[in-house]
Amino acid sequence: METFPVLLIAIPLGGAFLVPILYKAWRRLAEIVAGLCLATVLALSIYLAFFLVPGKPLVYLFGNWPVPLGIAFAVDKLSSLMLLIVSILAFFSYLFAIRYMDQFTGAGKFYTLYLLMLVGMNGVVMTGDLFNMFVFMEIAGLAAYALVAFGTKPKELEAGFKYMVMGEIASLMILLAIALIYAATSTLNLADLSRAFATMDKTPGFYFVVILLMFGFSLKAGLVPFHFWLPDAYPSAPAPVTAVLSGVFTKALGVYAMARILFNVYGFSRASSPEVFNALLILGLVSIVVGGLLALPQKDYKRLLAYSSISQIGYIVLALGIGNEFALIGAFAHILSHSLGKGLLFLTSGSVVYRVGERDITKFTGGLGKQMPWTSLSYNLGALSVAGMPPFLGFFSKLFIILGAVKAGFIVPAVVAGLFAVVTLGYLLKITNKVFWGKEGIKGIKESPFVMVFAMVCLVVLLVAGGAFFFWLKPHLLQPAADVLLKGTEYADIVFRIGTGG
Amino acid sequence: MIILVASLILFLVGLYAIITKRNMIKIAVGFSLMEYSVNFLFAIVGFRPGAVPPILQAVEVGKVYSDPLPQALVLTAIVIGLGVTAFMLSLILRIYNRIGSFDLEEIQRLKG
Hints:
The complex is a heterodimer. Chain A is mainly α.
């Protein structure tokens, strides 16, 4: 188990550069190798997520340098939950991509970029070093820019360029913050930084760095004042990539990194620094409202879902801003339910585009549910979960966020969060109404190939199972992850104790 | 302090170019400026007044060594910057081949 963190990087990284060579020889072999890499990563993540003991993180020391000196990976319950979510969605999107990428040339390069994106996300959630986090963020980011522009039509290239400009501004803000942090503390290890920050004066310079970091991570997460790249980037990427981008990419690079640094490194808590938490609360609320309202009039299938993603990420950041136990459990439940649910919805959009070749929902006459029953079923059940209807996983995640808000005395955010669950259902049912329901369908449309349907149905099963076994998941996965954030700078002590051999 | 302000000014010059320029090549130049400003900042962070190079030959009490780590960080940041610039320029070239313009507004108009 000690070598798992390295394997989680090494396997997809090796696979990424093996696949294009194999692809030249035999296409199916390349796909099988990519699939094996993803399946191994999934198996390792499942093992880590369920068998890692809370409070005893895995600390892997590169070159065996003890903790503050070298680069260390620290995998605790929070990291392992993120790893699990990333690898589940990456695996099922890959299954979907096998047939979906038939429409594109150069699928070998697609798998390379896809695996590199996975390397970057795994690295960001496991690393215990700030500069290392930046490096992995750039690996994931560059792969994502290339994947958004993968179709190389003018529109897609332009969306890729726009995404790249916004993503790189965010990266450079984060890099500037890292340089300033290093100038002030002479260390980059997250655990060591946490100790250095504890004794530091709260000068304007200190808050300037916090603001730079929050700006950078909010841009990566696509929160509302910084969301301009998102509605162009998501529709342009191939559907399996959009599923990963929306489902886990923004959460791993934006939300996870922000939560880890604000809670564990800076040691902020609702009681000690309400100004930071109020900023998160407002960012979250504005994202919920603006994302939800902008989603309502959209006519493009994927663009509507993209605005919906902004709104749903808002729920997670709102929950981080509330910052009590209920809300944090809700935040992680929502990361899980939204990544499965929205990933599923983007896959159904891919399924429809694969057969019909059209994304503008005003051009549909309805009735597709008769010809594509499985896609239709997946879409409707996924939409119910994203909107937060019982008995799906999405119901419990929103319930816990709202309960947390009420418990902390934030009545207005709780009411807005509840109200926008209904708005979510409204705009998602718009697609159901225009595309899937009705009598007369477009002639000559068949259900998508088996693997695509299989990937979608698996995600539906996970959403239903997540709802049914929520009270089993809560103590095993969600509560320990929330505890990691609630305990704040205790993270540093644990990492130091294990990382120095004590 | 002056060097810190200088690198922040360079950072803002780069950001200004990215935000206001319509020509994609100029945007790429803006990114290079921003990268250089941060690399510059990293490079001077390791400086200590009156320090000697951090090579330990014999135990010398009272000597101040300059910090070697920022150089490793700068090298990494330069390589990442190279990757970013290369990819951005190739993306720009691809757009130019498709549309025949470097102008972002022109592209939006042609795209329709």
